[in-house]
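Hey team,

Filing this mostly as a record. A colleague (T.K.) asked me to run one chain through the structure pipeline before their review meeting, and I want the input and output archived in the tracker in case anyone asks later how it was produced. No errors, nothing strange. Just documentation.

Input sequence:
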Amino acid sequence: MKHERRREIRADDPALLWAGAIEVEHTSGFSRPWRLPHSRISLFPGDMLRRRAAMAAGIRIVLGTDSTHFSGRFSPVGGDELSPVDLLVDGEPVRTRTLTAEGSFRFDGLPAGDRTLELWLPQFGESRLRGLSVDAHARVWRAEPPSRPALVVYGSSITHGRQAASPTRTWPALTARALGYDLTCLGYAGECHLDPMVARLVRDRPADLIVTCLGINVRSQGTFTERSFLPAVLGFLSSVRDGHPGVPLAVISPIVSPSKENTTGPGGMTLAQIRRAVGEAVTLLGEHGDTDLHLIDGPDILGQPDAGLLTDGVHPGPEGHELMARRLAPELKNLMAHH
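Output structure:
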């Protein structure tokens, strides 16, 4: 059977809108979206942080086309397997595709007529996009999505979402969709260490709602001690607030992790102590005038009765991400309603 000819679209084509990216690096062979500013990456030390920032959690490519076929190719990098891709047509989810061993995907049988496509890139694994393809005679144009309020989320691997079923089914993506918000996901697996430069990034990013999830990496890696953790949380949240006066800022303390609740990590703190310190930071800042700061207790979002949804005692699996979003979205909606 003869295959219909396709038209190639370069990854740096100006018709492509890279929504949710902080910066996009274009080379002769691929385009790579970043969740840190690549042009200033030396100001964000840590090889692992940079590797995580080159993963496209929450980033989607938006374009308009009348093609009934849509495919693309990534360059596999390192040993990390790329997560699947999701496609939305006119805002509605169509399907999920697992990438081939060569890093390619394809969607056939798309609805005829002018459509807006939204390709959600793999949430885990470095996304070096080589190019896209459409029907040979299809039109492609830049499609600006409707203006929506901006949601910025910062956190650890739980926010990054490797264990979610697909990029649109991480808890940040599900929550943003439920609220009707435009997502920027700054979840860095293993790298939520309250970096001052990341705080400045959040400070300078447009936001109508900010959600931070703080503590689990600090407990596991001993980033801070009991003496230094509370000041670090106070400083991080204050830096974010400097750029967003009056914007609701939700602070989620760690969700349940049964083995870490009452055992100390390298920094000498249990998860219960970490959780109390996060709560104390929110209380102190509130007492000093930040009335737009809101604490959400992590176990209220995923607690001991839900521990079976953790894949390894720490990370929620697909059902866990969906449960977190179902519980978190109404909390945030209520917060915004009373703002």
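Quick notes for T.K.: The chain has two domains: 6-141, 150-337. The first strand starts at residue 6 and ends at 10.
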